[in-house]
Amino acid sequence: MSDIKLVFHVNENNRWPFTIRSVDNFLLHSGIEGTNVTVVANGEAVRSFSQLDVEPHRMSRIRELAEKGVQFLVCNTGLEQRQVNKDMVPEFCTIVPAGIVEIARLQTEGYGYVKA
């Protein structure tokens, strides 16, 4: 299973708990490194990077996954549309111009798509 690559797409803020559990379970049961896993956050899901979302453990769980090698991409369009300051996005996340473009790019690189 070491050649499996997945992109998890989260665009609703209330889907973060499911997304985090899914990524964690995938890493646990697949036996592969996190470097083959990317999470793309766009739409309402970018609110987790602002004080508009008061979920105390969410960012620490995202950090834990990033430390395991999971890449987190955050849509700049979503940030701008929801007036979330880019400075609120943690350093272990990467801001990309458009999340949907990154999802398409990753799929052309052989990543499977999971809608979270």
UniProtKB/TrEMBL annotation:
InterPro entries: DsrEFH-like, Sulphur_relay_DsrE/F-like. Pfam families: DsrE (PF02635). PANTHER family: BLR3518 PROTEIN (PTHR37691). This is Uncharacterized protein. It comes from Arcanobacterium phocae.
